[in-house]
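Interim report to the steering committee. The following record documents the input for Poly(Hydroxyalkanoate) granule-associated protein (157 residues).
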Amino acid sequence: MNDEKNKVTDKAGEIARNIWLAGVGAYGRAVDEAQSSLKKATPQPPKLFRDLVKAGAALEEEASEARAAAVNSVEERISQVRENFHLQRSARIEDLQDLHDKLDKLTRKIDALTRLVKEQQEAAPAPRKRAAAKSPAKARTKSATRAKPRSGRTGKG
């Protein structure tokens, strides 16, 4: 029975060894193929890399120009808006305070003028009636007098 056990053990060992050798062989073959592919591909990467760098530089330049144009456009629009609203500088607290002071001063003047007008209205006598208008007959006679030609000047020669 010992012989049978040894045969089975030897057979299992041989199978395990073959599996191990197949794995090592596959690894070796993969390394060889990778090295072969690398040798074939070696001239390509530098050229491809250079092409990508050139394309990247061109895109960066275009993007930079586009960004600069956009910035200029926005700055021009802001400048136009400031000119339209006369906002060459931003409002400061002092400016706002000055405006409030001017508004208060104008309000006081308006109040004073309103009181003055009210006082004058209360002190003034009732308004008189206007004199009656001239009668239409008198007005017609004056215009008729003007329209008559003077004697001696008839316009005939």
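The chain is about 80% helix and 0% strand. The committee is asked to note this result when reviewing the revised timeline.
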